[in-house]
Amino acid sequence: MTLPDSDPLDLDRQVCFPLYAASNLLNRLYRPILAELGLTYPQYLVMLVLWKHTPQTVGSLGDMLHLDSGTLTPLLKRMEKAGLISRTRDATDERRVLIDVTPKGRDLKSAAARVPEMLGAGLDIDTESIIELRSRVRALVTALKGVPVGES
Amino acid sequence: MTLPDSDPLDLDRQVCFPLYAASNLLNRLYRPILAELGLTYPQYLVMLVLWKHTPQTVGSLGDMLHLDSGTLTPLLKRMEKAGLISRTRDATDERRVLIDVTPKGRDLKSAAARVPEMLGAGLDIDTESIIELRSRVRALVTALKGVPVGES
DNA sequence: TACAAATATATTGCGCACAATATATTTGAT
DNA sequence: ATCAAATATATTGTGCGCAATATATTTGTA
């Protein structure tokens, strides 16, 4: 009774699949550009946050990037090892770890400023589409954050 | 990738970040539901393709899902080990490996039919937004596939 | 002031996702 | 027919991303 084009298991009907594919393809596009700065994409996101406001805690970074300590702790340790950030226990609350940029990390900012334009260059997509897309994806992210964890 | 005007390094102006976040959050939402079927999200995508048309090669799956053999080969081996698919060298071209569903894999289809509705249930987003979003993301995926590999 | 609950980060184990590389097979130009 | 180039898959090593769990610190309440 189900029409061919209403089959819920059709890959082309899925919303999640294009999002998954776009995320992978974007990461693939970013990789060689960010590699010149010695960064991965999630590391680049951490730097974007730190360049705006510092210090951050592991938790505040996780809230903003929607990641948990299982992802962030090893990532931040690698960034510390690379000399880009510092990790210090908060003296006023020993549970927390304060994340700050080092001088080397701050120096990266000027080079990173040219990353966005490098990416946009080869992409045949107009500004209106990008703005509309961004607004729609943001709405989805908001909706996804609103889903209770154990929800059926 | 950012929009013109203003600070290009502002997390809020990025288009890629919400896409990255949405992809992660969706995967997190899918995980427990698909776990009941013994599948991960990319494995689920492989099954969606195979339920439509079989057999596929590693390469044809990669073309459709935008993944390469480095990702697919170990993934498919795990699915074979789980008894969901078979992997056979193509007798007419020994370079290829034919991927087919097993009876056990085919049986999963009916249970999987309820996955999409289970996901949509808790999401406070209207149909129009979803359709518009899907169309915009598809356009981005198309544009991303059009970027030359060594592009600067 | 105890001390259980809440909070913050770290650890473990698994499965992607990718670049780089390796191996085997087929194709095509001579 | 030969053999270099192209094609298809596999392997290696690195870095996420996550659930589950562990550990340490702080908070709230009796």
Structural key phrases:
homodimer, 152 residues, mainly alpha, Arc Repressor Mutant, subunit A, three-stranded antiparallel sheet, 7 helices, 3 strands, globular, DNA-binding
CATH architecture label name of the domain at 12-116 in chain A = Orthogonal Bundle
Please report which band the strand proportion of chain A falls in: under 5%, 5-15%, 15-25%, 25-35%, 35-45% or over 45%. 5-15%
Sequence of strands across the biggest β-sheet of chain A: 1-3-2
List SSEs of chain A in N-to-C order. HHEHHEEHHH
* Structural class category of chain A: mainly alpha
**Multimerization state:** homodimer
Q: Biggest sheet of chain A, in brief?
A: 3 strands, antiparallel
Nearest-integer average pLDDT of chain A: 91
Overall shape of chain A? globular
Rg for CA atoms of chain A? 19 Å
- Counting DSSP E segments of at least 2 residues, the number of strands of chain A comes to 3
Helix content of chain A: 55-70%
Number of helices of chain A: 7
Describe the structure.
Chain A is built from 7 helices and 3 strands; from the N terminus they run H-H-E-H-H-E-E-H-H-H. The mean pLDDT of chain A is 91. Chain A has a domain at 12-116: Arc Repressor Mutant, subunit A (Orthogonal Bundle). Chain A has 152 residues and is mainly alpha-helical. The first copy, chain A, has helices spanning 16-35, 41-52, 58-65, 69-81, 103-112, 115-121, 127-145; strands at residues 56-57, 85-89, 97-101. A 3-stranded antiparallel beta sheet of chain A has the order 1-3-2. The interface between A and B is large, with 65 and 65 residues. Chain A binds a DNA duplex (30 and 30 nucleotides) through helix 1, helix 2 and helix 4.
